[in-house]
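User: Predict the structure for this protein chain, please.
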Amino acid sequence: MHPPRYLNTHQARNRVPTAWEDLLGDSIERAFAAGIADLPALVAHLNRTGPNYPGGGEWTEESYRAEIARLAAEC
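Assistant: Here is the predicted structure, written as structure tokens:
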């Protein structure tokens, strides 16, 4: 019998996250810890607490989806 397999988070990345990416991840984790579980509330949380949307402006549901997709494609 083989031992259970798992993926260490850092095995899957191609580069070290930027400072902004770390801030985004921390903010998303705080939102989840606070019980935020839907996209509209998460976007509102990001607009309240940061980090700001890249290039300025506020986060929207569409911009959040696009940015997360962009970040996932870079991994």
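Residues 28 and 42 are 7 Å apart (CA to CA).
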